[in-house]
Amino acid sequence: MNIYGVTGWKNAGKTGLMERLVTEITGRGMTVSTVKHAHHSFDVDHPGKDSFRHREAGASQVLLASRNRIALMHELRDAPEPPLADLLAQLAPVDLVLVEGYKRDSHAKIEAHRSITGNPLIAPDDPTIRAVASDTALALDRPVFDLDDTTAIADFILRDLGM
């Protein structure tokens, strides 16, 4: 499975870049799935709903299905967070999996960077970051793209993966 990451600090433009890349790459006829890491507790369920009640009652997994989509919720119940490789193994085969977050994992990544955040670049100290997408010109030892040049960024990722 081809995997490529989009990483960066908070408010760097990662989610917008991910969204544009999915649109661009699926528009080229390829299949894409995404994995998003959240650093905080999140819930896709709502109190009072049947599936929420199942989880609250102690179910380890709840599969919610309709004719439009399915969602599988797995309660960790104090178990450690699974590594990215375990999560990827649960995905159906696609041409490309784009991963948002997971800065410390070893897959190839592009760093999203916005100068207004004042955060330092991650790339200089991380060889897994193959390029940077930024809203400002940068002098680096790897390619730098305009954060909004989705076509060029997608071309680079696909070429870097040999696709």
List keywords for this structure.
163 residues, alpha/beta, 6-stranded parallel beta sheet, two-stranded antiparallel ribbon, 4 helices, globular
Task: Describe the protein in words.
This protein is an alpha/beta fold and 163 residues long. It has a single domain (3-42, 81-160), classed as P-loop containing nucleotide triphosphate hydrolases (Rossmann fold). It is built from four helices and eight strands, in the order E-H-E-H-E-E-H-E-E-E-E-H. The protein has helices at residues 14-26, 50-56, 84-88, 150-160; strands at residues 3-7, 32-36, 61-65, 70-74, 96-100, 109-113, 129-134, 144-146. It has a six-stranded parallel beta sheet, covered by helices on one side. A hairpin with a 4-residue loop joins strand 3 (61-65) and strand 4 (70-74). Helix 1 packs across helix 4 (150-160). It is globular and about 55 Å long. The N and C termini lie close together (11 Å).
Outline of the structure:
The chain is an alpha/beta fold. It has helices spanning 14-26, 50-56, 84-88, 150-160, and strands at 3-7, 32-36, 61-65, 70-74, 96-100, 109-113, 129-134, 144-146. It has four helices and eight strands.
What topology emerges from the helices and strands here?
Blueprint: E1 3-7, H1 14-26, E2 32-36, H2 50-56, E3 61-65, E4 70-74, H3 84-88, E5 96-100, E6 109-113, E7 129-134, E8 144-146, H4 150-160
Parallel strand pairs: 1-5, 1-6, 2-5, 6-7, 7-8
Antiparallel strand pairs: 3-4
Helix pairs in contact: 1-4
